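Sorry to interrupt, but I need a hand with the structure work. Leave the record below and I will have a look:
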Amino acid sequence: MDDPEGKSDGGLGEDWAAMLEAEAGSDDVDRVLNQDEIDSLLGFDASASSSVELSGVRALINSALVSYERLPMLEIAFDRLVRLATTTLRNFTSDNVEVSLDSITSVRFGDYLNSIPLPAILSVIKAEEWDNFGLLTVDSSLIYSMIDVLLGGRRGSSVIRVEGRPYTTIEMALARRMIEHILDDMHKAFEPLGHVNFRLDRMETNPRFATISRPGNAAILVELRIDMDDRGGKVEILLPYATIEPIREQLLQMYMGEKFGRDPIWEGHLATEIHAADTEVSAVLHELELPLSKVLNLKSGDTIMFDTTPSDPVTLRCGDVDLTKAVMGHIGKNVSVRVTRPLNPPKVTMAAFEAMEEDGEKLR
């Protein structure tokens, strides 16, 4: 008799062999991924906008970074810089200059240094009041375009790019003047958030000499596009998160009008309601201090003598605040007072409220 187990073992072996042969003959085993599949796996999509949620390896890389969207006022400040720089560069070049804000992103400092296309001018800027540094990078196309415009180049001619040589003294001097104008506009753009002066510390052409932070530290990268008819280039401003830390609370505020955080509609409504509110005003004829024993022994018919006459001024008081002086009289059967001098100036000013806020922040 034949062994049924042997037949079953042999059948299994034949089945495994057939499966292996089928897999070996399949075309999918050695198939190579195309570029679209690789980009999808890594999470890179050139057609996706910055608002699209990242995926893949790119999401892991950017997971530790703080999104600039948590700092709403930062975008408003750089929008103001765009308007200021447009006017300033038009006056500087006497040409039709258009400045636009390309993007505001979060990057790692080391990755940014490695991605700078050379040649370029890297300006180390110092925020004096914040006691920290930032970078302002001007690419070569903008430098040559600006030099061409300032030195009288013809309109419509293509900009000549000279590679393989360092920038000359004239080129560096003209680039320095343009950078100083941009830094002055940055000072004006950040003025509503906090007083800060941006000073040009030094200019470098080698990224290794422009290291102002650790490679792994997060930073804000702002890309500005400057166009002059058919020529122009990019200016990139990089501010480490440690640099903008002193105004972090201001950057967290929501934008509520042109006055940076103030709502004129609400202020007008509040002023109207306060003006129409009812308040109680007392006329104090005289104040007298008596011993507690005498007050406790007062009886009906006792007389308390006030050291005042009917013509002496009385004090108009609202709560605990003395408003002004008045003279007592009567109109018909009603007792009245006539104000004799302007109201007293308030003792509590806006400076006192600001000082109270500063003291509260210190206690925190």
User: Anything to note?
Assistant: The radius of gyration is 38 Å.
